[in-house]
TrEMBL record:
It holds the Pfam family Hydrolase_4. It comes from Leptospira interrogans serovar Pyrogenes str. L0374. PANTHER family: PHOSPHOLIPASE-RELATED (PTHR11614). Transmembrane segments: none annotated. Gene3D superfamilies: alpha/beta hydrolase. This is Putative lysophospholipase. Residues 30-152 form the Serine aminopeptidase S33 domain. It comes from the Bacteria.
């Protein structure tokens, strides 16, 4: 069975920005995966991933984060990281209403991975997350890199 592709918009609860959303669904699917793209990307970039799972029983949902793809906002800009997290929370709530499901998986890549991770720690639906898939999440490493590099170079 093939996916039914739909495009729709939601309004961000924080500032009413219009966020472009997509779904790839099958009527008999039991599982739900919500994925979040990285910086400079858009939800349509993941169609190969969707095709790969075409025989699965997973419904896929994604959206273009503000300032990316077909969503509102200055390209590549957000006033705060928290806006990204709130947008994801709004999107997850909308998807759960559409799917009439409570449990879901989250996939995030790069900046989307960092947003997904923060959402999983703070989100209103965090107890309903079945699992996180983080692809190269944009996480900050807490160490003085220059000092470590200097010490490493002194060895040579």
């Amino acid at each position: 069975m093939t996916f039914h592709h739909k495009e729709f918009h939601i309004l961000s609860s924080s500032d009413k920005s219009k966020l472009y959303c997509q779904s790839w669904t099958k009527s008999n699917s039991n599982r739900l995966l919500i994925f979040h793209h990285g910086f400079g990307e858009h939800s349509g970039r993941y169609t190969n991933l969707i095709r790969y799972f075409s025989k699965s029983d997973i419904n896929f949902y994604s959206f273009d984060m503000r300032g990316h793809g077909n969503s509102d906002g200055k390209r590549g800009h957000s006033d705060s990281f928290d806006l990204y997290v709130r947008d994801l929370a709004d999107f997850v709530s909308e998807v759960l209403k559409r799917e009439q499901k409570e449990r879901f998986f989250l996939l995030g890549h790069s900046l989307g991975g960092a947003i997904t991770l923060r959402y999983s720690q703070e989100g209103i639906n965090q107890d309903n997350i079945l699992g996180l898939i983080l692809g190269s999440p944009a996480l900050r490493v807490r160490m003085d890199f220059r000092k470590k590099l200097k010490n490493l170079l002194l060895v040579f």
